[in-house]
Design a protein that fits this description.
The complex is a heterodimer of chains A (1120) and B (329). Chain A has 1120 residues and is mainly β. In chain A, 2% of the residues lie in helices and 52% in strands. Chain A has four helices and 88 strands. In chain B, helix 6 links the parallel strand 4 (110-115) and strand 5. Helix content of chain B is 25%, strand content 16%. The complex binds S-adenosylmethionine (SAM).
Chain lengths: 1120, 329
């Protein structure tokens, strides 16, 4: 093909990249971050503004950036201008940038220089650079004109895993090379007698038992640090390395990482290391860990930079996140655990319970029935009262709200509750409630208007007391409002309570793990219409609960119950926030719930950090985010789901003892009883951390599937906020914005909803769904609509999604994306979980299971397809390609709330890789649904689902045992398209009424054919199950070496245009319709291991957007 | 998940244990041989990157000839001894190791050189692909010294972005280069094997160990970066269709009716690099950051700062984060 023919067609252009951050460097008050071939420039403006200024595109062509080296300026001026060598893989380019008057500009860039070997390190030597190359050689290179000046190899030729160049002139240039044999070789290129003459190493240093991934030299102290595969960091005393023959002494061997260490950096007073375990550790030069920064997700931290003047450490992750951390030396300021020295002759008795009323008053009771106050500011104990009725058993709970509203409540074993105003304990009010023990006590506060105290007594009766204060503030009133009845269980008491705004309902959790909804004023709710659908039994029940026969007050049952939501260990807290109810439990989960029409609805189950199997509570931080409180073995942990950081860790001994938590903007406090004393942990700044997320990460591991759901047009009022300065204005970012909504799923077990505005080339993660327990491999979308339905459409988009993956697990959920000017993307996404399915659960539920072969719980779902019959009453079918060799069909009913296995076939007898559904429509014929499945042996099978659905079981083999799925009959066509696994599959109807079918394989080949469907005419078909459609192949083509690796993405864009993507990182466009597919052009993209591609048309031109998902995400535009 | 779960997920892993192979890779070589009859007439072979040694097992069983020295096996890692196999521990990309291997073949050539080498992948794709390519090129460099004319070279390749550069390199030395994937290698894996037959170096080629063979680069005529002309060699799937599917999960009782019995691994790994770190972790001796309770403030009034002095370090509030993942200039 000649050059002219090459460029007739426009090429795809990359408009969005999300890749691991592999290079970071601070230049003045700017941060350069390398992402793929692009540089992101952040302003670290000390005035408090921190943001991305610019993306400098495509500096390294098809290479990825691995590092930056800033040219030292003789006069030390790097305030507004710098020459930067950008390198990665075998590519090198110099750019001159300036950022004077906060305008970022690229002043000049050199050519992209290709080296013959991998570049491990670059060092500026005045105007030239020295390069340390892959096979232990060093080049002196003129980067401006792009020519090699000298090339010196080491006599010890081997491949390196890292290298470090030291010195400022060629004469003193020192190489420290990390060989695959785990040795460090130190040698001097200038010792070469002539160009190309190998130089022998001056010193060999061994120590590590794994390869060395990173090195850092601190000239001022003569130290070298190395990071290795063996999970350790070593500190070496080397003196001046530029002097040959010096002694190398290992002075530190630091084990602290739990996986390989990728990066190390020596600072004047610290050593920073980061690795595969996603942890960044700060060490002293003596090898003590001073700080640990956790929060990145996935496969580790890849890049590290430091700003010594500001004491910042910046990390870049495989999750494409960038975070900034504060170096604080040893621990955080104002942190500490102290014993409050309760024990004293003047305070007899042992402590029973502790509580915090706000952040500076701590209350505690003893087994003598005495209530003590400890003022954290004055730091002294004060006895408030003593009541022998509260001796042997006493519950203690401070009221919620600021400073606990100055109230606390006690309860005893004889059914009595005491409400104590802390400032005037003499005004305490006693209230007898039950004949037996009060099992639990909790508060509920609505604004400042309504304060309730709930107490559970014998027989599952929960009394509701209303607390009010006299105008003088001196006296309080306690009146019983009503009684509720909890569902029967062995330990029948409530554990927590909260008002559901606006206040008609109370939500409670109980010891049995159920979440319950009660009307807050049941007596005014006599008319069942008010609280929505009142359940049977929600009316008052006579006081027949047995144990408590004293007064026959009505007892109200819950109007809605989520039975045993948190399992046997119980619910630990309920919190209402931003329209949702959150419940936490000792099952290690927290749920997001919704109250709708007087009913509780589970929305999503959320996961906490690993190992936190006792979630104790949830807390809203002043900055609007949420933190999770819980216990992790014997530690109390405050964990942020947003940053994935453990904000506080206190070794308190576990959650079984009495403890209390409070948090204000100023300080966080955690109190617990230990060894007969009150221990208090306090942290200044509360639960907010100064650490900054410069950029949120996306998935921590490979993306396995991408799907575009739809698009939303945002009016000008929902403009994605533009950064103010003209420099930040993205061209074309004015005017109404069209935003694509794309979903991705990943091996990290999550499904993510992304907004990709078409005009700004940015991406915003809207929500993540974390219900899967194993990797998620496939998704399918159905029921696209707008909020408000078709009757009163509102801006936005709704859709149902089914996701599936490892451990034979499938989940259905719906998403609602709507405009929300309060978020950076201008959009908000709400998710509602609908249903889930696991093959082995299904098996466990079967009665005759001893007679069946157990479904392998390790089965992986490889691909999904939705098949929507056009018949009323029949829900969509989900077809799943399964690794155990089956194609399974599920039915979705009740808009996705019911998901059931319906039929299966083991036709393929090997791992099924792909399923794809399509419909055949022709005049005079019934619309037909087909399913195509493809397996690891290169074969395709076509299934006629319409006939299956029409005739129901007549065409299906009935199951061998009742309760088992039906067996699908024989496919209506099978075809050997490839010699090995089929990794992509797509179809498109042609103008002639046929179907183009295209598949791509592991062997890099494409197969395209025209499929004709001969279906019976409508009239003859009636009631004749024998008249099945006939499928024929009309034309068939194969392109054997279309790609050099698996073709994992393939889409027919029009009857004349097709695009394929492969693990060989080429996106190739093909002309169809004139016999064999012909090559149009191809683009090299940057995402490795692409597993899936989705394409959709973009208006107004005839263009297409292609999203590629693999180890990252990349979006291309292509105009025909 | 019990110890049998890997047996279910990976049928070849299980079969390897049951058949006494040290690794499931044995089936890859057997299936390659099924297709290409690699062992025919072979009396001397080199197994590069051999540990834990299943290929060496296959070679020593399948090739003809007598006496020791028929198979020379090389690996970075230590490997349990095998009868009739000479072992060398070292880095095949290192000059000294290459020299040591070649010494064994002075005066008589090898008929077959195989290399199943793979670096310990880092997850950074470009680095891993490069490292893998260097193993292949180092193996090729060794092959150019020891292989008899017409001999055969089989090496693992990662089919990534730059695999066509390796193909063009191999074509220089062999009359036939194919890409083969045994059925025991997973669909999801990017590994495949370059099967190069008919060793025929270009005229005037002088093998030089001291210079590494570097990968080719793209050119605008024969091997384009993004044009239609690329050197993609024919692809062959090896092993017949009735072979087990490595991507499929199988029930423990396979169809041939034999009863399942758990078999422990044949050859557990010898001292992995992370051993010491793991031992320390087990003993709880990994360094930890100092939690506040480890340096308790024993008395209350020892609190160094009053609680009121707050937010001295929140110059950059967390709310000023950049949510934008990406923007184009
Ligand atoms: C997949 S295993 C080989 C399995 C082997 N063929 C068998 O059947 O047992 C890859 C081996 O390559 C080795 N290797 C990696 N880099 C090497 C190098 N530079 N020199 C020698 N061996 C290397 C590793 O130590 C590892 O044992």
């Amino acid at each position: 093909m000649d050059a002219l023919g090459d460029y007739v067609w426009p090429r795809a252009t990359s408009e969005l990249i999300l890749l691991p951050v592999t290079g970071l460097e601070c230049v003045g008050d700017r941060l350069l971050a390398g992402e793929g071939p692009d540089v992101l420039v952040y302003s670290l403006d000390f005035g408090g503004h921190l943001r991305m200024m610019k993306r400098v595109q495509n500096l390294l062509g098809h290479y990825l950036i691995h590092g930056f080296r800033v040219r030292p300026e003789p006069n030390g001026d790097l305030d507004s201008e710098a020459m930067v060598a950008v390198f990665g893989s075998k590519g090198l380019r110099i750019v001159k940038i300036s950022w004077g008057q906060s305008r970022f500009r690229e002043l000049w860039r050199s050519g992209l220089w290709n080296m013959s070997d991998w570049i491990w390190d670059v060092r500026w030597l005045e105007g030239n650079v020295a390069l340390a190359l892959g096979h232990n050689s060093v080049l002196l290179y003129d980067p401006v004109v792009g020519c090699m000046l000298q090339d010196v190899p080491c006599t010890d030729r081997c491949t390196l895993s890292s290298a470090c160049l030291i010195g400022d002139t060629w004469k003193e240039l020192t190489v420290v090379a990390g060989a695959i044999s785990n040795q460090l070789l130190v040698w001097y290129p200038a010792a070469a007698l002539a160009d190309n003459k190998p130089v022998a190493p001056d010193r060999r240093v061994s120590g590590h038992v794994g390869v060395i991934f990173s090195m850092s030299y601190l000239e001022s102290k003569g130290l070298l640090a190395t990071a290795s595969e063996d999970r350790s960091v070593r500190i070496w005393k080397v003196g001046d390395l530029r002097v040959p023959g010096g002694r190398v002494q290992n002075i530190g061997h630091c084990f602290g990482h739990s996986a390989r260490v990728w990066q190390v950096k020596l600072l004047e007073n610290y050593l920073i290391s980061a690795g595969e375990d996603c942890v960044c550790l700060v060490w002293s030069h003596e090898g003590e860990i001073l700080q640990a920064f956790r929060g990145h997700q996935g496969r580790g931290i890849r890049a590290l930079a430091a700003h010594e003047m500001q004491a910042w450490v910046i990390t870049g992750g495989d999750d494409s996140g960038i975070r900034l951390w504060h170096l604080a030396g040893r621990g955080y300021p104002g942190l500490g655990v102290s014993a409050l020295s309760f024990k004293s002759p003047s305070r007899p008795g042992t402590l029973k319970a502790v509580t915090l009323a706000g952040s500076w008053r701590l209350l505690t009771v003893t087994d003598t029935g005495a209530l003590y106050l400890y003022d954290l500011e004055v730091k002294c104990w004060e006895k408030l009262l003593e009541d022998k009725h509260f001796q042997s058993y006493c519950l203690l709970e401070a009221a919620p709200g600021p400073e606990g509203l100055g109230l606390c409540a006690m309860a005893n074993g004889e059914g009595c509750v005491k409400v104590v105003p802390i400032n005037t304990p003499t005004a305490a009010v006693d209230h007898g409630l039950f004949a037996g023990k009060v099992h639990s006590l909790s508060w509920a506060l609505r604004g400042y208007e309504e304060l309730l105290l709930l107490a559970s007594g014998p027989g599952g009766v929960m009394a509701c007391l209303e607390i009010s204060a006299a105008l003088s503030g001196k006296a309080i009133f306690v009146t019983e409002r009503c009684r509720y009845l909890l569902p029967p269980s062995k330990q029948r008491w409530h554990t927590c309570s909260a008002f559901v705004p606006p206040g008609d309902f109370l939500v409670c959790g109980d010891r049995r793990g159920s979440v319950l909804l009660f009307p807050s004023r049941p007596e005014v709710l006599k008319d069942p219409g008010v609280g929505g659908k009142a359940e049977a039994g929600s009316g008052p029940v006579g006081g027949d609960s047995g144990t408590d026969g004293s007064n026959a007050v009505a007892e109200w049952s819950p109007v809605s119950t989520l039975h045993s939501l948190h399992g046997k260990q119980g619910v630990t807290s309920v919190t209402c926030h931003a329209g949702y109810v959150y419940s936490t439990g000792r099952d290690g989960a927290y749920y997001q719930l919704l109250v709708r029409g007087g009913q509780l609805q589970p929305v999503l189950r959320q996961k906490t950090c690993r190992g936190m199997n006792w979630v104790a509570g949830l807390h809203m931080v002043p900055d609007g985010s949420m933190v999770i409180l819980g216990f992790h073995a014997n530690e109390f942990v405050v964990w942020s789901p947003r940053s994935h950081e453990k904000l506080h860790v206190v070794s308190c001994g576990g959650g079984h003892r009495s403890w209390a938590f409070s948090d204000t903007e100023a300080a966080m406090a955690f109190a617990y009883l230990k060894d007969g004393d009150v221990m208090l942990y306090q942290a200044l700044g509360g639960c907010t951390r100064p650490h900054v997320i410069l950029r949120e990460g996306l998935h921590g591991r490979e993306i396995t599937c991408v799907k575009r759901v739809g698009a939303i047009t945002l009016g000008p009022e929902f403009q994605v906020p533009c950064l103010e300065q003209p420099d930040f204005l993205e061209p074309g970012s004015e005017g109404p914005g069209l935003t694509d909504i794309v979903i991705t799923c990943s091996e990290d077990t999550t499904v993510c909803v992304l907004a990709l505005p078409t005009t700004t080339g940015s991406a915003h993660a809207l929500t993540a769904v974390c219900n899967h327990i194993s990797s998620v491999r496939a998704m399918a979308v159905w029921g696209l609509g707008t909020p408000g339905g078709s009757h009163s459409p509102q801006p936005g988009l709704t859709a149902n999604i089914v996701s599936a993956g490892g451990r034979a697990e499938m989940h259905c959920f719906s998403i609602v994306v709507s405009p929300d000017s309060g978020t950076p993307s201008g959009l908000a996404c709400h998710v509602m979980h609908l249903s889930s399915h696991r093959l082995d659960d299904y098996w466990d539920q079967q009665r005759n299971r001893h007679r069946m072969v157990k479904v392998d719980p390790e089965t992986r779902y490889m691909s999904l397809a939705i098949c929507e019959p056009d018949r009323p009453g029949v829900g969509p079918l989900v077809a799943a390609a399964c690794s155990d060799g089956a194609v399974r069909l599920f039915v979705l009913q009740d808009s996705g709330r019911i998901l059931q296995l319906f039929a299966e076939t083991f036709h393929h007898e090997r791992c099924v890789l792909k399923v794809h559904s399509f419909t055949h429509e022709a005049p005079n014929q019934q619309r037909r649904l087909f399913l195509c499945s493809a397996a690891t042996d290169g074969s395709l099978a076509f299934w006629d689902l319409t006939t299956v659905l029409d005739h129901g079981s007549a065409l299906l083999e009935p199951p061998a045992e009742p309760g088992l799925p039906y067996q699908l009959g024989t496919p209506c066509l099978t075809l050997q398209a490839h010699s090995c696994g089929i990794n992509s599959l797509h179809t498109m109807p042609t103008r002639e009424g046929h179907h183009l079918v295209a598949s791509g394989s592991e062997d890099g080949s494409l197969h395209v054919f025209v499929l004709a469907v001969k279906a019976p005419e409508l009239e003859e078909a009636v009631g004749e199950p024998e008249l099945m459609p006939q499928l024929h192949v009309l034309e068939e083509y194969s392109v054997p070496c279309a790609h050099a690796a698996h073709v994992t993405g393939l889409k027919i864009l029009s009857p004349t245009l097709m695009v394929s993507a492969s693990i060989d990182q080429r996106l190739t466009f093909w002309r169809l319709g004139h016999g064999e597919p012909t090559f149009m052009n191809s683009t090299v993209y940057h995402v490795p291991d692409v597993a899936d591609m989705d394409c959709w048309p973009v208006s107004p031109e005839f263009g297409h957007r292609c999203a590629l998902g693999g180890q990252g995400l990349e979006v291309y535009n292509w105009y025909d | 998940m019990g110890r049998t779960s890997k047996d279910k997920r990976d049928v070849y892993y299980r079969l390897a244990k049951e058949n006494g192979w040290r690794a499931r890779s044995a089936f890859k070589l057997l299936q390659l041989d099924e297709e290409f009859h690699l062992f025919q007439g072979v009396t001397r072979a080199v197994d590069l990157c051999a540990a834990p040694g299943s290929w060496s097992q296959v070679l020593s069983q399948k090739i003809g000839g007598q006496g020791p020295g028929r198979v020379v096996a090389v690996d970075l890692q230590a490997m349990a001894p095998l009868p009739g196999v000479i072992q060398i521990q070292g880095d095949i990309t290192q000059l000294s190791t290459a020299k040591e291997i070649i010494q064994h073949f002075e005066g008589c050539h090898a008929d077959l050189v195989v290399c199943d080498g793979a670096p310990d992948v880092t997850g950074l794709h470009d680095v891993d692909e490069y490292m893998q390519a260097q193993l292949l090129l180092a193996a090729l460099n060794i092959a150019t010294h020891v292989l008899k004319p017409g001999g055969c070279f089989v090496a693992k390749i990662f089919r990534g972005r730059d695999v066509t550069l390796l193909y063009s390199q191999l074509r220089v030395f062999f009359s036939s280069v194919l890409c083969a994937k045994p059925r025991s290698s997973r669909n999801s894996s990017i590994e495949a094997f370059a099967v190069c037959r008919g060793y025929d170096p270009p005229e005037g080629f002088v093998a030089d160990l001291t210079k590494p063979l570097l990968d080719h680069s793209y050119d605008s005529d024969f091997n384009q970066l993004d044009g239609p002309t690329r050197i993609i060699v024919p692809f062959v799937t090896c092993g017949d269709l009735s072979a087990y599917d490595s991507d499929r999960s199988y029930p423990l009782n396979l169809q041939d009716g034999s009863e399942y019995k758990y078999t422990p691994p044949t050859q557990p790994p010898i001292s992995p690099p992370y051993q010491e770190a793991c031992t320390l972790k087990k003993k709880g001796q990994l360094a930890k950051e100092t939690h506040p309770q480890d340096c308790p403030i024993s008395r209350v009034d020892a609190l160094s700062q009053p609680l009121a002095a707050i937010q001295c370090h929140t110059v950059l509030g967390p709310e000023i984060k950049d949510n934008k993942m990406n923007c184009t200039p």
